[in-house]
Amino acid sequence: MATTISALSFTTLYPGLGVPAVTGAQQLEGEQILPEESLSIVQLQVPNKKALDKLVEMGIDLTHRVHQHGEELDVDVVVTPSEIEELRKHGITVKETLITEAQWNQRTAERNAAVQQESTIAAAEDTIKVLRANHYTNQSATFLYVEAKSSAGTSASTALTAKWVENGVEKTASLSRFVDYGEYMYHWMELPVTAIPESITISSNLGGSATSAVTQWLGEDKKGSPKKHYVKDFVDHYMDPYELYERAEKLAKEFPDLVEIIEMPNKTNGYRRLAQATIGSVTNSAVVVSSKAWGHEGGNDITVEFKNPGKSSQPLTVTVDDSKVIVDLATDSSGKLISTASQVVSALNSKAGNLVTATTYRGNTGTGIVAAGSAKLSDNLNAPAHIAREPQTVKAIRIGKHRDGSKPGVLGYAQEHAREWVTPLVTIETAERLLRNYAHDGETKQLVNNLDIFLIPSVNPDGALYSFYDYNMQRKNMTNHCGPTQSDPGNRNGWGVDLNRNHSVGSVFDGYVGASNTNCLSSTYAGPAENSEPESRNLIWLADKNPNIKFAMNIHSYGGYFMWSPGAYNPKRETLPRPTAGQEAFYWAASNEILNDIQDHRGTVILPSRTGPIPDVLYSAAGNSADYLWYEKGIYAWNFEVGADLWDSSRNRWSLVGFQPPFEEGHEEAMEFANGLIGLIKVAYNQSKDKQPPSTKAVPGNGTFQGPVEVAFETSEAATIYYTLDGTRPTFQSAHLRLSGTREPAETLKIDKTTVLNWFAVDAAGNIEKSYNPLNNSANFNSVKITIK
């Protein structure tokens, strides 16, 4: 049923607002509403570190990549042309444009083509051909060699598994996929056997299967024993959250004894928005209309029309007919339109308030005269229909033979920032490697049998979907905390919360630098409160629920950094408490192992200048999640920044790779950082087996000295040293050895009077030197007396 409201009743409801005449001067106060600006990644020339801090304070969208040379810094940022003009006022200039919006869109097109190809492959019936099944014996052992081809083999997600009987025991192993110059050739494996099987069956995770007799291969292998058979390379395109979760569910179904899917309790806001339109092109005469219902729940069906009645002395009226809203604008005695934006807003809210809400443009007084116009409201979301708009359940893949909390836990989590498309691939590749190598690789079996491994492919699925289908450079989630003055559709790409600024340690709410709690459009907006976002609370829940987690890796891109806490400092550049000298030494020692594994793939070296505590190599990141895990949970927590710079020898300089490089490069990054994540898992395993207490030595030790001395400590491994200088028993509450300075070794103790120095050491595995117990009256701590004459 249609309803109307006249200008007479409007002035009765809102005295003084009526339909006053507006002068031409008032109407000219408004400015043209500018079209949306295109974005690009540019390299800024920043004069010094103070200017970099200014960038952070301004909320400029930094990419994580900073390169310092002398006092100046090259800083990559995501900016609009108007932001570039503003930066110039602060002496910050553009050095080079690196990636344009057109290039981002090209990445999306490439990814969509790959998805379509994979869908076509998956829809076809999978058939397996066994090309070769041979056994041979060389000078050292007998081997089984297999080549098989799948009709779906062009997709990296297609996995082939071999089964055979060896000495009455069924054996299984995964085959490696062989691709040459982009062409799928076949899957293969080569393994030592203790008895020659009569036949072998090759099956696909898509359902295909084939069996072949095993025949002898003539001649010896002149190259000797083959290398260890280790299967990898399971990703061939960027995957949205739906694909990631689908892959996870398939792995859980295929390996039920080793995998379970954890569903997080806090649902996201959802890939959904209100339907909106801004009607008008001038700031003080435009009206922003938003649906009350979500776009997909009817908001997208609403139309709004502002009509010129074509008659003189007409009142302002609003008519609502189902999902159609018609506003007949008021006219004066000469037939000229006289309804202001503020009047139209009030009329819409009064009579169409069950369907829409209306505001003036960004808090404008709305004194301009509204022109005739119309719009169909839209939520501006472009994902295909199979992508649900409802709140999502974030999922984690839990891998381990014993998933009951009895084994040490390792957490890898990705895509807090939506636009970082490579990072989820690191988790999926890692999961596939752990599961598909379990049956035949002894080292993998050790890791899976003795650890509890948690992998979250996408912490931020809503934002990720928005990045894939609507706006490539989306960093935040999709929760809009902006008020009415900032919630017009022109600001839609700025809404959301930076999930890596939403945590409760070292947050902007506590006065730390590197986030905003006032500007909801800032790229580092921390939200209305600490832990306001369900995605952040999910990470906290997982850590609370699984206290066995001892190690974590937060996977980001790009720039090729490897970092740990502290992650934030205050305006005086006072950081969160630094780790002890022993803890810092462990971070460095473990990092060396992990970074070596990254290098093994294609030689990528994470530079020393990009390795270390976050503020030392990048900038302050108030409220980041790794700080929460370290300071609140005692978890050794690192931050990957995948996508190290590539050396351009023709230009004699490093060149960036970006958030969404061509997949050929993204694939390589996923491979090398999956190496690194498995490297962290190996660190966790080695630490779990570490039962050897550290040993330490004070240098100099007991003795008499003519003047003050500097006492240093030699340690057998990375360990925290607790000490006293007054002869009392050292405990965990005693002073501990700290770093002598930023990126410097452990401090020395200056002894300038006769002192009894007592101490003990604790390594990262919790082993205490000499099995000393600081909690009772044990006396087997270390002690030296230094006599100063």
Automatic annotation (TrEMBL):
Cofactor(s), by name: Zn(2+)
GO CC annotation, single: extracellular space
GO biological process terms on file: proteolysis
Keyword Lipid metabolism: no
Record key words, sorted: Carboxypeptidase, Hydrolase, Metalloprotease, Protease, Zinc
One Pfam family matching this protein: CHB_HEX_C_1
InterPro entries in the record: GH29D-like_dom, Peptidase_M14
Entry annotation: catalytic residues: 641 (proton donor/acceptor)
Keyword Electron transport: no
Highest taxon in the source lineage: Bacteria
Domain Peptidase M14: 328-684
Protein family according to the UniProt entry: Belongs to the peptidase M14 family.
PANTHER family (alphabetical): PROTEASE FAMILY M14 CARBOXYPEPTIDASE A,B, SLL0236 PROTEIN
Protein name in UniProt: Zinc carboxypeptidase
Species the sequence originates in: Neobacillus piezotolerans
